[in-house]
Amino acid sequence: MLSSMENYTIKEQIGKGGQATVHIVERQLDNKQFVLKKVECFDESEANKAFKEAEALRDLQHVYVSGYNEFFVLWEKQDSSVYICILMDYYPEGTLDTMLEKYRQKNGVIQEQQVKFWLGQIVEALVYVHKKKIIHRDLRPTNIFMTEDGTLCVGDFGVDTIMGDAVTCTRATAASMNYMAPEAATEGYTEKSDVWSLGCVLFELVTAWMYSRKDAIDKLQEVRANPAVLDEVFEDISKHYSDALIKSLASMLKVNSQQRTTPIGKKLVAMAMKNNMQDDKIQISGCKVLNSLLVGADVEDAIFLPEVLAVNHTNNVEVQLAAASLLVSLAANSVAGEVIGHLGGVQDVLTALRTHSNNVQICTVCLNALWGLTVHGNNVKLATEGGAIKEVCNVLKIHMNSSEVAEAACAAVLAMSLDEENLAVICDLDGVGLLVSAIGTHGSNAKVVKNACLALASLNIMGPCDKALEKLRKVKRPVVPPTPSPDMLKSTTQKTVEA
Asked: Which residue ranges are recorded for the region named Disordered (predicted)?
């Protein structure tokens, strides 16, 4: 196999361990920088086998996963060695380990919301790769990369052929061994061995204020021999972290793999929210964290949300805003949207609209949520029964000068027009007149005009709304001069010459 190394220039070596060296390289074509990992193989057949396994990692496409860009097998004559070369994205901001060291140097506590934010992203990444039948095999802070906006990307996946010797410890680096599940040495790597490694990462996050990297690793080694050691640690970290988070950590660091939890995505945050329904700060933080993690919504994400939105915090503007924003994201999934409707989420959105009708932000978000929810299942009927058209028209009338409210309200009217029972109500409330006014007020806003026109077309307007149609005819439209054709230009030029 021909080497692709000729396409890259090595800039510097940034790591070395076991059978691998890591370099920053620059692609000659466009000067873009990458990380190149060279792993020595026993022979060419092993290198080719590893290459085929690594091919699956090239297809990984997820916001929290850093897959591999290119692979090639390299033969170096000077030392008669065969290497598999893996090209990965370069992250100038460093790794999660870089961030951990910053906290450790100042004995700083990483706030629980931030821990959950990062933990959720790593879990989402693991759930994704595990569904692809891929095990990470080498999850640790130095293999979790930090992006410019502070989110994480899990990368540097271990390849079975070249990681397999970790079982006999002939190739594994000390760093890899520190995070390797107790059973991996005898049973090999599984999804649950990744969960142990995730538990080790979480352990470092919640103990950064009290342990150095070495102390944290030493303590984790003690846990392997005596799991009861964790009880003392939990007592210390309970000063800063909730019982729900500590229980999650305990479930990941079960020495017996049969007792160890498997990644359950957003449920980690949902569990904390359910256990603290009266705490508005936890609800706000939880909604924001979940919203940042909604790469794909599923039914479990929606189950507890109506409680958050309506029962305990109806008058809390920040909770309503955070929860309604999350509902907008969840409504993108039809199954989740139907579940929200069954659990009373549509009525809760309408309650929020009534309670906070003077708040532009809440009205905008709730109208978008209503729009998203009413296209699923029986939700449009539920909205009709709850008097949604009245609330939408009222909010549009109050905030007619807000393009955001107008855009969302016109879309909500369009969605509500799917139920014929709403047609007469819309006319009775001068809904058509409001749509026409939205066009007149925001004539230069393409989204408002589009949504309003679609709603008007959907209504199939008849008798009672003739006055509204007359309003539409009177809307002033900008006069746009026609674009001169080549013949017009030629004719004009000739007349000018003749003159």
From this structure: 477-499
Residue type, 162: I
Burial class (CB in 10 A: 0-12, 13-18, 19+), 324: buried
pLDDT interval class at 271 (50, 70, 90): low
- H/E segment holding residue 23: strand 20-27
Nearest-CA neighbor of 178 among 216, 125, 129, 143?
Answer: 216
Q: Which two tokens stand for residue 37?
A: 């990992």
319 φ/ψ angles, rounded to the nearest 5 degrees: -65, -45
Q: How far apart are CA 472 and CA 460, in angstroms?
A: 14
What residues form DSSP beta bridges with 438? none
SS3 annotation, 184-244: HHHHCCCHHHHHHHHHHHHHHHHCCCCCCHHHHHHHHHHHHHCCCHHHHHHHHHCCCCCHH
Looking at the chain, the whole-number percentage of residues with pLDDT higher than 90 is 35
Tell me if 249 sits within 8 A of 203, measured CB to CB: yes
Looking at the DSSP bridge assignments, the partners of residue 82 are 41, 75
Q: Report how far residue 307's alpha carbon sits from residue 460's, in angstroms, rounded to the nearest whole number.
A: 38
Tens digit of each residue's pLDDT (9 = 90 or more) over 88-98: 889 999 999 99
Report, as an integer, the average pLDDT of 5-27: 83
Q: State which amino acid sits at residue 195.
A: V
CA distance 250 to 400: 53
Residue appearing with tokens 């809760």: 348
Question: Rg for the chain (alpha carbons), in Å?
Answer: 30
Considering only residues 420 and 99, tell me which one the structure prediction assigns the higher pLDDT: 99
Task: Using a cut of 0.90, tell me whether the model's pTM lies above it.
Answer: no
What backbone phi and psi angles, to 5 degrees, belong to 204? -65, -35
